[in-house]
Amino acid sequence: MPTPFDPAEIPALRQSHYNATLVDLRFCHDDLAFFRILPDHPVGPWKPGQFCTIGLGGWEPRAPNTQPESLDDVHCRLLIRRAYSISAPILTPTGAVAPPYLDPVLEFYITLVRRNHGPPPALTPRLFSLQPGDRLHLAEKIAGHYTLAPMASTDTVLFFATGTGEAPHNAMTAELLARGHTGPIVSAVCVRNQIDLGYLETHRELERRFPNYHYLVATTRDPINLDPSVSGYVGKMYLQDLVRQGVVESAIGHPLEPSTSHAYLCGNPQMIGIPETSHGEPPRFPQSLGMVELLSQRGFTLGDRHTAGNIHFEKYW
Ligand SMILES: Cc1cc2nc3c(=O)[nH]c(=O)nc-3n(C[C@H](O)[C@H](O)[C@H](O)COP(=O)(O)OP(=O)(O)OC[C@H]3O[C@@H](n4cnc5c(N)ncnc54)[C@H](O)[C@@H]3O)c2cc1C
Ligand SMILES: NC(=O)c1ccc[n+]([C@@H]2O[C@H](COP(=O)([O-])OP(=O)(O)OC[C@H]3O[C@@H](n4cnc5c(N)ncnc54)[C@H](OP(=O)(O)O)[C@@H]3O)[C@@H](O)[C@H]2O)c1
Asked: What is the arrangement of strands in the sheet containing 213-219, beginning at the earlier edge strand?
């Protein structure tokens, strides 16, 4: 039997598990924030689009108004870890576009999950209790295959994200713009409400500076989505609607051309809509139309272990 957990153990637990400092924390609103973390260790080489694991101890407090949780004496003493895509401010404080891996501080864009249908969300209620200067755990290894494919500088790059799924796209956008990509770059994001667009101003600034860059927004729960009597009412807009209604093609100025395009999908698995595949059988798509099926209908292909396709995805759960 483990000994009962004693809060006096906390300083030693933090000392032995934590290896990074939260140097900056900025809230877009109560449930959405930028976390900037400086690891004690040098950050090894990493590619835009990759993720890193953040950890906090089960002993840390949870933010108010989050689903209650009760941990036993073993779990109270363990680290809780979750994967987070590395995001990027894209523009440096002097206004330059810089590749994100030059910054020793890693930026993360995280939403607070207050409640869950299954077990209570474990990490975000603790992350949203932190203050700048607090310590935490950051895995030394940066990992993931959701990175920019080899491409010509004139190719079209299409990023589609729900919510904080834009994080890896910001890092990839910084890389593309910094290396002088001249083909169209579209970053499309679907959020519940306009206030969930934490990087909106940065993207608008990029649009002013780079004629090939386009930031497209779809909301689903604002008055323009829900109330037909509101001026500008558009109904609920998903990323799928931006493609079906030709909004993406209008932004790039020509029809989608799969042979010179790369599509990146990140966030909510239902938006992505990954098909089930078995050898020799056609893919079986989920009932509700996801982006993989829609782009497949337009001639894009999902890669597998043997062939590189031009649809890439990262699902967050
Ligand atoms: C490769 C990878 C990269 C990720 N990058 C990010 C990121 O950059 N920013 C980020 O906020 N999250 C990201 N996530 C999700 C993250 O790992 C956690 O799952 C999330 O922060 C919730 O953690 P939790 O312990 O509080 O709840 P969990 O128990 O992990 O999740 C509970 C439920 O919350 C919902 N959920 C989880 N993540 C999100 C999300 N991002 N947006 C909306 N609903 C969600 C799902 O329904 C999930 O089942 C990523 C996940 C993966 C696999
Ligand atoms: N204002 C708030 O209270 C608030 C704001 C942000 C986040 N949160 C919390 O953060 C967590 C994550 O929320 P989130 O909004 O970032 O992520 P999310 O729930 O994944 O939603 C992001 C966007 O994806 C849309 N979407 C859902 N299913 C889709 C599908 N099949 N195809 C295409 N798009 C689809 C959502 O539309 P729908 O409207 O149809 O779901 C929403 O606009 C939640 O637990 C929530 O509690 C709360």
From this structure: 213-219, 185-191, 156-162, 261-267, 311-315
Q: Which residues of 147-177 are buried (b: 16+ CB within 10 A; e: fewer)?
A: bbeebeeebbbbbbbbbbbbbbbbbbbbbbb
- By percentage, how much of the chain surpasses pLDDT 70? 100
Answer yes or no: is the C-beta of 189 below 6 A from any ligand 2 atom: no
Expressed in angstroms and rounded, the spacing between residue 279 Cα and the centre of ligand 1 is 31
- Identify the three-state secondary structure at position 226: helix
| pLDDT at position 287 over 90 | yes
- The whole-angstrom separation of Cα 238 and Cα 247 is 12
pTM score of the predicted model: 0.97
Does position 305 have pLDDT exceeding 80, yes or no?
no
Which fold is adopted by the domain 156-315? Rossmann fold (3.40.50)
3-state SS track over 162-223: EHHHHHHHHHHHHHHHHCCCCCCEEEEEEECCHHHCCCHHHHHHHHHHCCCEEEEEEECCCH
Question: Tell me, what amino acid is at 147?
Answer: T
**Ligand 2: which of 82, 112, 162 to mutate, most ligand atoms within 8 Å of CB?**
162
Residue 191 CB burial class (10 angstroms; 0-12, 13-18, ≥19): buried
Whole-number Å distance, alpha carbon 19 to ligand 2 midpoint, is 32
Per CATH, domain 7-138 is 2.40.30.10: yes
Q: Which residue has the tokens 């209790």?
A: 129
Ligand that comes closest to the CA of residue 88? 1
Count other C-beta atoms under 10 Å from residue 3's C-beta: 8
Q: Where are the domains of the chain?
A: 7-138, 156-315
